[in-house]
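Task: complex structure prediction.
Instruction: return structure tokens for all chains below.
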Amino acid sequence: MADVETLRQVDVTDLPILRRWRNHPDIRRYMYTQHEITAHEHQAWFERMQTNPQVHLLMYVEDGTPRGYAQLTVKAHRADWGFYVSPDAKKGTGRKLGHTVLDYAFHELQLEKVCGEALSFNEGSIAFHKALGFTHEGTLRAHACIRSDFVDVFCFGLLKADWLTE
Ligand SMILES: CC(C)(COP(=O)(O)OP(=O)(O)OC[C@H]1O[C@@H](n2cnc3c(N)ncnc32)[C@H](O)[C@@H]1OP(=O)(O)O)[C@@H](O)C(=O)NCCC(=O)NCCS
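Output:
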């Protein structure tokens, strides 16, 4: 039977699994902040996000099991997104998460554009954005300080029109 894929708001009971994913070396090394996040820090982040109605914290679920996380931060007609899949997710999970989140962004939230940023060494995310139809709109040079190195950040954009004509 085909997986039933859904998206729901993150709630407080998701915090342990989200922190486990976020602190996993395969995820943490691609984030702007690379230290291990403490439970206290994580809780404070969640509470801060809850006070901002422009931030959507989303859990991607397959057949009732959380498989990935995405965040949309809305600014007028567009949103910045961030995401990761469970470190033990099978191949293809990211693509399904991407489709589900982008459908939500363009259909439910009625956004005109979704923007993503990837560290220049995150080849998986760069290929992933392109596979979803994003355009590489520019490069922010030496923009992030990662383990004492200044690295470029690739900026991606996907318009509603691009998505609807996929
Ligand atoms: C990026 C991420 C979400 C992709 O999820 P995934 O389940 O591996 O992706 P999929 O298997 O669905 O792959 C979809 C497409 O993305 C691209 N892709 C994904 N991982 C890739 C990799 N390691 N190298 C090259 N291309 C990759 C491919 O184009 C792939 O299509 P294909 O399989 O037909 O070639 C996942 O690797 C992840 O969570 N990474 C760590 C966190 C992260 O980097 N988040 C983004 C920060 S900007």
